[in-house]
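## tool: complex_structure
## caller: assistant
## args:
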Amino acid sequence: MKINKIIVSFISAAVILLSTSVASFAKVVGDKIVLGAAISLTGKYSSNGVHTQNGYNMAVDRINSMGGVKVGGKTYKFDIIYYDDESNPKRAAQLAERLISQDGVEFMLGPYSSGLTKAIAPVTEKYGVPMVEANGASRSLFTKGYKYLFAVLAPANLYLDVAIDLAVEKNNGKGVTVAMAFEQDAFSQDVRLGVLDAIKRTGSKKVIDDKLPKELNDMAATLVKVKQMKPDVLVVSGHTKGALTAIRQISEMKVDVPMLAMTHCDAAKLSKQHGKNSQYALCASQWHKTLTYKDDFFKDGMTYDADFTKEFGYAPPYQAAESSAALLVFKDAFERANSFDQKKVRDALAATNMQTFYGNIKFAEGGQNVDKPMVLFQVMCDDGGKCENKVVAPTKWASAKLIHPIPSWSQR
Amino acid sequence: MDFMVFQYPMISVQACLDGILLGILFALIAYGMALQWGVMNIINIAQGDLVILGGYIAYFMYLYGIHPAWGVIVSPIIMFFVGIAIYKLVINKVVDRDLFISILATFGISILFMQLMNFAFGADVVLANSDYGTTMLFNNNVVLPNSKIFSAFISILFAICLVIYMKKSKLGRAIRATAQNARAAKILGVDTEKVYAATFGINAALCGVAGALISITFTIHPYMGLPYTIRSFMIVIVAGLGNLPGVAMSGMGLGVFEEFADYILGTEFRIGSVFLLLVLILVYRRFKLSRKREYLK
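## result:
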């Protein structure tokens, strides 16, 4: 009897203790606004997952040290609960569920990659939890009618259409011939759709349209076709693997094209891994440090670049910059809503119209950012073999002049 | 459907040469798999992961300023011991069990290797630059990266060395004897335990060579091993066990078939068409076998 009593009281004590400790995590506690995020800290997205986390942490520290968030006359500080989603969409959805229903989180930050964002969005939508995400660009995220999803980045279909416009401009406004090689995944196929739109719009013509399997690390067949058809532009998108494989095989097979445009150059550390062979490649980027956008917290791109490098020991890729911007958007929305009511914060987010060091942010109906164009940079190397990425389009932000057409391999 | 490949004869030549060079490299990995399958009756799902690990060894040499081609020598030496270690820790416990157990065990090793490599080397896609340049043939109409030619040459060299070793050396004879009949070999004084360990080590060493070559010709990534396992599995299925010329021919044949499928059907059907071919071959084999059975009746 006595032992039973002890056990019962022990269990009830434990339950009470647990429930209070769970409560202490919830949403807004004391002077803390607790955000939740499932991030790929292990698994195949872990490099970019870490960039995302570093971007979030950098912004949290900066906002907290510069006065925090002012709501209802009181000052709050940001705090983030992180879980590792192991780069696995199922796990990400489970963790979102856990963050919301167990940890009581009422506001979420996005994970890394379109695939994982797609897995989490239905969960946040179900619970009406506003989520600001910075690393899911797939167009399909913004056509599902989600009300609580906001993305600070430009959607995937806008990645490379700038390149087609640029090629047409260089061709005196006449249409060009385009060769395309895209991986068969949601993101790359969205990029492809954007390019197809641009081809139609400009009266250009596609001459090659290859879909690369995910396992493939050999593009030789596509490149042989390119040599034969001699298109004006070659467009490649297949994440870092695609970018690295393309440059390796283009240089080995001496493929000459007037313009080569691709995605994921900075994530692939193209200029570092391939040196001069990557020269003249045009790369789509969400952000570049030389852009002249400004805000009160990070000042501008150059300052952000310097501060981030000082803190984390490497130059920030755009994945980090956009993640930092997500926190600035949340801060702005909380202050305008002047409340922690999820609906009010959601409406404030939808009405966002601001400038950050990362770019202008204004959300369309579907939640995508429509006020920030993509930029194209070109890899440029000096005689010593040191390569740098220089913005060449849009012209407003260009820090260097586009080199077009690319000199042939025999002249390099 | 696109018949560009037949309109321009040079593309056919290019496709054949690309396919053959690629096939030779795959055949090397497949030969290791066939060897251990024949000797130990183990299908090694971790084959591709051993390849990638071998690739990382060459990549790290490249990072430290050593030419990655030296990886072709260093990587198999290290991988040989890695293979022996895996054998002593796991494989020796499943070697006499049925095939399903060994598939499960090597599948586990595969997952473990992927995660460990991701943990140790990071999730970035990497490659090692050999700067070997390019060979132009037929008035610059056919281009062959020298790195691919180098890979094929080294693969052939290792295959020949291995064949001679298997024929001439004492261990080679013991391995062949064990493959034919493990029990009889044991009775006649062959230390089968040692033979198994050596076989697994040799297979891992072959994977090491292939990995080093892949880091020079393609790209490596911790999660990229499985396609290599599947590819070598297919080559072995087509060629049969213990048949090196068969493995080489089937490797090259699949390589060429793949390239032509790419040109004619489109890149998206490249891998699918290889699987289709595999199914056709298996059906054909079964058909032939059933005919034989009828005669016996």
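## assistant note: The interface with chain B takes residues 42-47, 87, 181, 184, 210-213, 215-218, 220-222, 224-225, 227-228, 239-241, 244-245, 248-249, 252-254, 268-269, 273-275 of chain A (CB under 8 Å). Confidence is low (pLDDT under 50) at residues 20-26 of chain A. Handing back to user.
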